[in-house]
Design goal:
The chain is an all-alpha fold. It has seven helices and no strands. Helix 3 runs antiparallel to helix 5. The radius of gyration is 31 Å and the shape is elongated. The N and C termini lie far apart (75 Å).
Length: 203
């Protein structure tokens, strides 16, 4: 017996229809293995059933269609979770971009002074990235702790993936850090183009 895609297989056996008496289920299922095209097989089955009893309803689906039907709900749940995950990632990127941009504006004079005394553009970019990492690293660490703690809650939605899969956690961490650094590069590059003369005049 198989309870679904998320459950393990259990022992199963079949009995002939004539062996069933009181426990016979009128909504019986017939599994047919054939090399014929599905359309031809369906037409043949319907004709055979109609020749015996035209009033018997027949619902014919391929095995792949049956399995796909079982996967509809898990697929929808994963799409929904993925949507919220992407939305959360975009909000985090926008928030990080805003914080770093504010940092660059607030420290325009300092950046101008650093460039005036010989700091290179690489030095300025490194300054911005260091300040961004002070936000990124604790945030990623906190997110990993929460994800690790809540992964058991989502274990029923996982298929062939362990709740604490190291590959998944490593890939997600790398992706988050990469996206966060890309969001930091835009205000970081703007900081490297600051004109020291103009920056020193800013109040």
């Amino acid at each position: 017996k198989n309870g679904g895609l998320a459950e393990g297989d259990e022992p199963e056996y079949y009995r002939l229809r004539r062996q069933r008496t009181q426990d016979w289920d009128p909504s019986s299922v017939l599994i047919l293995k054939t090399t014929l095209p599905p359309a031809a097989t369906e037409a043949w089955i319907r004709s055979q059933v109609a020749s015996l009893d035209p009033t018997v309803p027949v619902d014919i689906k391929t095995l792949s269609e049956r399995v796909g039907k079982l996967a509809d709900r898990p697929r929808f749940e994963m799409l929904l979770i993925g949507f919220f995950a992407v939305t959360g990632l975009l909000l985090a990127v926008i928030g990080l971009y805003g914080v770093i941009s504010f940092f660059v504006v607030q420290r325009t004079q300092e950046i101008g002074i650093r460039m005036a005394v010989g700091a290179s553009r690489a030095d300025i970019l490194r300054l911005v990235l260091e300040n961004a990492l002070r936000l990124i690293v604790p945030g990623v660490f906190l997110g990993l702790v929460l994800a690790f703690a809540l992964s058991r809650v989502l274990s029923s939605l996982l298929f062939n993936v362990a709740p604490h899969d190291p590959v998944t956690f490593t890939g997600a961490t790398g992706l988050l850090i990469l996206v966060a650094l890309l969001a930091t590069l835009i205000p970081g590059c703007s900081a490297t183009r600051v004109n020291p003369t103009v920056a020193l005049r800013c109040d």
